[in-house]
Design goal:
This protein is an alpha/beta fold. The chain has one domain (30-49, 80-366): Rossmann fold (3-Layer(aba) Sandwich), CATH 3.40.50.1360. The protein is 19% helix and 15% strand. It contains 7 helices and 13 strands. The strands form 3 sheets. Strands 2, 4, 5, 6, 8, 11, 12 and 13 form an 8-stranded mixed β-sheet that branches. The chain has a 3-stranded antiparallel β-sheet with strand order 7-10-9. The longest helix has 23 residues, at 120-142. The protein starts with a strand and ends in a 10-residue tail after the last strand. Bound molecules: ligand LXAUTJHC. Residues 150-154, 177-178, 190, 253, 255, 261-262, 285 line the site of ligand LXAUTJHC. Residues 122-344 form the Glucosamine/galactosamine-6-phosphate isomerase domain. Pathway: Carbohydrate degradation; pentose phosphate pathway; D-ribulose 5-phosphate from D-glucose 6-phosphate (oxidative stage): step 2/3.
Amino acid sequence: MAAALRAPCALSRPSTVSQFRQQRTGAVAVRAQKVEAQGAAASGAVLDQPARQPSPAINLIQPVTRWPEGIPPAMGGHFMPSGAAAPLSQSKGPGIDIHPLMFTYPAGGNDVAVQIYDSDFAAVAGLAEYVAKASAEAIAARGAFTIALSGGSLVKSLAGLVGRSDVDFSKWWVLFVDERNVPLSSDDSNYKAAHAELLRKVPVPANQVLAIKEGLPVQQAATHYAGQLLELPASVLPRTADAWPVLDCVLLGVGPDGHIASLFPNRKETAATEGWVLPVSDSPKPPAERITLTLPVINAAKNVAVVALGQGKAEVVQRALEVQSLPGALPVQLVQPAGGKLSWVLDQASAAKLRIPEWAEGSKKFPRSENPPKSA
Ligand SMILES: O=C1O[C@H](COP(=O)(O)O)[C@@H](O)[C@H](O)[C@H]1O
């Protein structure tokens, strides 16, 4: 990947919003069906390797939702970076001997739009464009825009929205993809981080920012948060025919273990098929108590972006985009919005381990491909 994408003129670190704006075109969009540079006016990144045939080890696994005879042998391990199958796991722990159908991939699988920016700063500007577009569309359609924010490293990526006079923040309703069950003043609070980086700098009305209620046991905190969402009228938060809320935009971070929101690998909350908001009382990542939107809520959204920037995300990005895991082992692979669009926002550092020349035609259904397996 590092060889496949090169940036002839590295972008300098912007210190102002206008510099963010100047860099906002710096994307290379890699669509599911083809890989193409976006022209000279884009990042300057060049795809300079001839297309290669996909490795025979790729696309072995059919993205069916259930396997009639349980988990196929090939699912016992990941594929190695070389393309060879990793040894089958002998583990008796979660992921092998758990109820075999606790997790399933959603049927179908989406195309995913992967945007790779020259720098984290260009990615921040590109993300602002993405959100601004989603905001404009929603406000034009029904006069409101609902956006769910993750915590962690994602929050700093929101900086490109500050100072944008073309975004009508007065129509925004801000939710949290997940939240830690801590006081809002705590350094662990996702609300506190979002407030510091974005919400205090843009004119979103305070009553349209839905924060967790402090001081409740985690179960009650989740119920209370779900109640706040349920109270929103359909003009603000429409519902699907199955009564799932349709958020306009969900911004997900992804942990090095593949978790999104507070949905961790092989956990019951990750497998939940009911409920809008769940408590997590024993998160493997501190703090232990959290609340989280469920996968069905995330997958009912119109626009879902997985934002992963920096070298520290390179491994999980490669695993998530190029290696189909046992369902539940990489929760980010379960993100497949049914009626919406899925995007990944990367920079060169986080994309460094991808093997884009091998993303042959038709092979980027997510996760992995719909190519038939070599043997059934
Ligand atoms: O704990 C959390 O982690 C994830 C990922 O965070 P990152 O710092 O590794 O990017 C985050 O998306 C989630 O909202 C947060 O609560």
